[in-house]
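Hi everyone, sorry if this is the wrong subforum. Our group has a chain we'd like a structural model of before ordering constructs, and none of us has done structure prediction before. Sequence below.
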Amino acid sequence: MDLVLSGPIPINVAAAALHRLRADVGDIEFGYRAQAWFAHVLKRIGATVVEIRHQGHPDIIAVLNGRFARFEIEIASKGDRHHTIKSDDLSAISPVKPGELGYLAVLDMAEPMRWATLEQSRIRGRLGRAPISTLHAVADRELTKLCNDAFFELVGESIDRLPALTFRLLCDRVLRDNQ
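Answer:
Right subforum, don't worry. Here is the predicted structure as tokens:
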């Protein structure tokens, strides 16, 4: 079951609603919800979500374009224009077998709010603090566009219900739809 459609809204309206939600639920809970929304994004762009982890790494395991893929989901503060790429996150998305994919997906909370979806091989030499602008520059452009479009459609479809869409509820819905 997909999230219910309530009509398209401007991205700035969706971003404002997400900022309010983050202020209401706190950074940790907002981060969990971002993971679950990203799982819905993956489903919307044609992936099969296999697992979403509340703890541990990677955050999401999916099959994307017929390939096993690991995703780490991060939130970049709108006040700090750098993001820290951690070695354990990079290890979690590193392919184990040939043909596997690994991505770091960073939700940039600054204006304009948007995702940067980075393939593991593009960031493995960038451990530590990296400018957000650099992450956007090395992101997978096609996948990032697909993810941003799907994300803002999802938020727009459920904008009136964002506070009720908990991590657990979002996870249950995306995983139940695979059965």
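For your construct planning: Residues 27-44 form the longest helix (18 residues). The chain is about 45% helix and 25% strand.
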